[in-house]
Design brief:
Elements: H1 4-12, H2 31-53, H3 60-85, H4 89-92, H5 97-122, H6 127-154
Helix pairs in contact: 2-3, 2-6, 3-5, 5-6
Biased composition (Polar residues): 177-186
Main location: membrane
Transmembrane segments: 63-88, 100-120, 132-151
């Protein structure tokens, strides 16, 4: 006869706490996509700084749109990178990180492409503006590469039958708890 310790010990023992702050690769982010996300942050930062240094504009609407997109990309991609590469993503309360990651990355790719095209078309053609546009297009390429790598490795997360996580909590339990667990369930 087995003792209570031998039966329950394996399921009740706490796992040792991991002291690692950066967990790459993980279930949400592999090494290649981690590097691409770092490049996205860097290109977005350079594009944002270069457009901020522009001292005058003939038509400021495209400049402001580019500023908004590059700043948004910088801050939110950095936040997403920190969350996905550290254990912090477990404390946020979001259950479907793949859908969030893919949706955000794809949306930023499209927004950065639009902002770069509009800014390139209506900029004053100074060196700073051209540099900002160049880094905007580089960031756009990085976001599209990130989306492509995501699709290649994991598929589209919101496609039919392609759920990344099985949702065991939303199904009603169909079995009754039996006194000894030996009775068949109909």
């Amino acid at each position: 006869m087995a003792t209570a310790d031998s039966v329950y010990n394996a399921t009740t023992t706490q796992e040792p706490k991991s002291k690692k702050w950066i967990i790459v690769p993980s279930e949400n982010l592999d090494k290649v996509r981690f590097a691409v996300k770092v490049i996205e942050v860097l290109f977005s930062f350079v594009a944002f700084v270069m457009e901020e240094v522009v001292s005058s504009c003939s038509q400021c609407g495209p400049l402001y749109f580019f500023e908004f997109v590059s700043c948004t990309a910088l801050l939110f991609t950095l936040l997403l990178l920190i969350l996905l590469a550290t254990p912090l993503h477990q404390r946020v309360g979001i259950n479907c990180w793949p859908t969030l990651d893919f949706g955000y990355t794809s949306a930023m790719a499209i927004l950065f492409l639009l902002a770069s095209i509009v800014f390139a078309a209506d900029s004053g053609q100074t060196g700073l503006e051209q540099g900002a546009v160049a880094f905007g297009f580089l960031a756009t390429v990085a976001f599209f590469i990130d989306s492509g790598l995501f699709i290649k490795n994991r598929g589209i997360p919101c496609g039919k039958g392609n759920n990344q996580q099985a949702d065991h909590t939303s199904r009603p339990e169909s079995e009754k708890l039996n006194a000894n667990g030996t009775e068949p369930v109909n």
